[in-house]
Amino acid sequence: MSLLMVITSCTDFVDPNIPYKTFDTALYLRTIRSAPTSLNFNFFELGSSKFQLTVEAVDAEEGETLESVEIRVRHRRLIPGVGFEFRPAGTTATVNDVLIKTLSRSDFQKAAENPNHPTTLYKRASFEVSAAEAIAAVGLTNATVNGGDTFEFRLVATDKFGRTFNWRNRSSDVAGGFFYDSPFLYNVNVICPSDLGGTYKYESTDMQSIYGSCPGIIEGEVTLTPVAGTTSYTVSDATFGFWECYGDSWGSGNVRLNDSCGILSFSGADKYGDSYTFNFISNDGERLVFTWVNGSNETGRVTMFANEGRPWPPTLR
Question: How many CA atoms lie within 13 A of 65 on its CB side?
Answer without folding.
Answer: 19
